[in-house]
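debug: dumping io for the single-chain case to check the tokenizer round-trip. Nothing else runs in this session.
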Amino acid sequence: MKMIRNRVLMIATFCAALSLPAPLAAELQSHWYQPHYLPSVEDASDQLKLASPHFSPMSVEVYNNGSRRAYGLTSGYSLERVDVNRLDINLFFTKSGVVQNTQYFWSWWGGYVAPVTTPYKDDIVTSIVYKEIQYFEIWNFPREKNQATWCVAPTTAGLVRNSFLCVATEQDARAVADAIATLVVASGVNLDSSQGLWVDVKELQKHPDEACKLSDVDLDGPPAQAGIKAGDIVRSINGRPCTGKTFYHDINLAMLEKKGSGAVHVEILRKNNTMAFDLNYPNPDAGVVQLRQQSAGSARHPVGSVIPVPEANPVAPSPGVHFGLQVRPVIQDDLAPLSLTKAQGIVVVSVENGSLADTTGLLAGDVILAVNGAEVGDLQQFVQTIRSGVAKSFRVWRKGQMLELTVPLSI
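debug: decoded output
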């Protein structure tokens, strides 16, 4: 029941107290995400490091009375470092540049207006406190021009300020959520699970004949995977007739009884047709004890450790060929997550959609070992080769397999 109260509180807070501006609220899409725990805290830290060049914080504006908040995507910030310890994760972002204004100056021959350039630096620290996290949501702003339009929301009853982290793709968001969730449970915190089915209590009061009509179905949950949809009406749960008053009690009880060991049988009415579904709820706590024991003895990422953030260098469109990718050198900490035996080659950090790199078949996370049959040298040499337009083929290491990719167009 704790999870239900939190869910109701979150919805009420999100819709009323936060009062997002209308254009942003209309574009926001969010859904519950059931994370998948990684085998160790080392794997979680490695996964965060691999995704780190894509990180962007979400800005939060708090109004003067403290009762309203507005959320918006940021741009132009770079991640300097990630501090991981057994209490929280702290991500340090920075943004610098110059602002040009005009200023009136006095002189003995009269006043004049001249441009004035003022340098600035803006820092953001995003803190994710383990003990405050209850569950995860993934948010998407599909019409935003900012590239980091998928946000991981480690959610608490109070929606803690700055606890949001945005990335470029949904796949990256899921990977980041999995890594953070692994660190959370390793620290001793128990996350809530979702039954994946939701009803609108107020609507049920208005229309008691539609008891247990589903207002929402989690995208990642067993009900959605089985084929249940919003608008379906639940008739029974494991043989128990469903009513609006008992829905959450019955579905949670059934989920707890069968979690990881059997199917929850649900009968649905859809457009006057009765349908039956078997929902298989995994046991998210499987392996948690071992994960916590392993974390307690971890020496590789002790309290206060820092995950190195490799610098991503863009292969620029000018001068030379616009290939459409960002790269960085392979470092020693890449060996385990990328299944490499030595620190050699160039890691693809991101690929521009529709670019020549995309057409060639390069993906983020690929390790380029050779160009035109010759082993890759240092980063500067690689960038010069790409810009010159002589690159015709790539030897790529991808998830433990060697691939040969050929540039399909003449450049």
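debug: round-trip ok. Residues 1-26, 62-68, 299-304 have pLDDT under 50 and may be disordered.
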